[in-house]
TrEMBL record:
The keyword Iron applies. PANTHER family: CYTOCHROME P450. This is Cytochrome P450. Keywords: Heme, Iron, Metal-binding, Monooxygenase, Oxidoreductase. Coiled coil: none annotated. Belongs to the cytochrome P450 family. GO terms for molecular function: heme binding; iron ion binding; monooxygenase activity; oxidoreductase activity, acting on paired donors, with incorporation or reduction of molecular oxygen. It holds the Pfam family p450. It comes from Quillaja saponaria (Soap bark tree). Its cofactor is heme. InterPro entries: Cyt_P450, Cyt_P450_sf.
Length: 273
């Protein structure tokens, strides 16, 4: 993670700032979280943060598959089910995008299996996928769980890419909107950096890495992030499907098969909550 932040994200941001051109911060954060989750979870670098900001086929397909799948929750099932059956419209594009995503995930799993077969221990393999696969007693067990590993890759990217980038985008938008908050965050960080001078020749360089103890001292920054997540949740609306007939604490009866929709965005703005 330190490598992705210091050697890629910060250097790319510095280059963009020096160029004087405007750029889409949310897109940049999406690229950052995509590279970050791939490196952390699978030990591979997709290269989304390269200086030329290349279009990565897998990343594009993943985003398209995610956006188009959302339509299934909006369009009546009998409509999209027929489109899927006949391979028409956006359902055809979903199928193509998902195939690209699965191909990438399967290739990742296959290469990881080959690497682990050659190595006795986990030296050089700190990613989550390697550790998960190493838990299996034998290569046969790993083969049996092939689809599980593929789905693990896809779900981890889904969980770690959009949520983090959206949260960061809203946070920086709010910080920009409230300069007094930005000043307090910077003062808190500078105060912690000031106490690091004995440990670093130049504590204000990009390569400063905060320790766990340093991060615990960033009380105001954590409060600002928490408030930002509360007001602009990465998942502003969600729903659950009822597995069995049930009754809510307030006496509301909910029938099996129903969908309970709740707005996290609205709840964060209700004084009663």
């Amino acid at each position: 993670m330190q490598n992705v932040v210091h050697q890629k994200l910060l250097k790319l941001l510095e280059k963009l700032v020096k160029s004087g051109d405007s750029f889409d911060l949310h897109e940049l954060l999406l690229r950052f979280t995509f590279d970050n989750i791939c490196v952390t979870a699978f030990g591979i670098d997709p290269g989304c943060l390269a200086f030329n900001l290349p279009e990565i086929p897998f990343a594009k397909a993943f985003e398209e598959a995610t956006e188009l799948t959302l339509r299934r929750f909006i369009v009546p099932p009998f409509v999209w089910a027929h489109l899927r059956y006949f391979g028409l419209g956006y359902e055809k594009r979903i199928k193509e995008a998902i195939q690209i995503v699965h191909d990438f995930a399967e290739k990742t799993v296959m290469e990881k299996q080959k690497e682990l077969c050659k190595s006795v221990n986990l030296n050089g393999h700190s990613d989550l996928l390697s550790r998960l696969m190493k838990i299996q007693d034998s290569e046969a067990d790993r083969q049996d769980n092939y689809k599980f590993y593929r789905d693990f890759c896809v779900s981890f990217i889904l969980a770690g890419r959009d949520t983090s980038s959206v949260a960061l985008a809203w946070f920086f938008w709010l910080v920009n909107k409230y300069p007094e908050v930005e000043t307090r965050i910077l003062n808190e960080i500078k105060d912690i950096l000031g106490h690091q001078e004995c440990k670093n020749e130049n504590p204000y360089e990009h390569d400063v890495v905060f320790s766990e103890e340093d991060l615990k001292k960033m009380v105001y920054l954590q409060a600002a992030l928490s408030e930002s997540l509360s007001l602009y949740s990465s998942v502003p609306i969600d729903f659950k499907e009822v597995l069995e007939d049930d009754v809510f604490p307030d006496g509301t009866f909910i029938k099996k098969g129903s969908r309970v929709v709740y707005s996290i965005f609205s709840m964060a703005r209700m004084e009663s909550i």
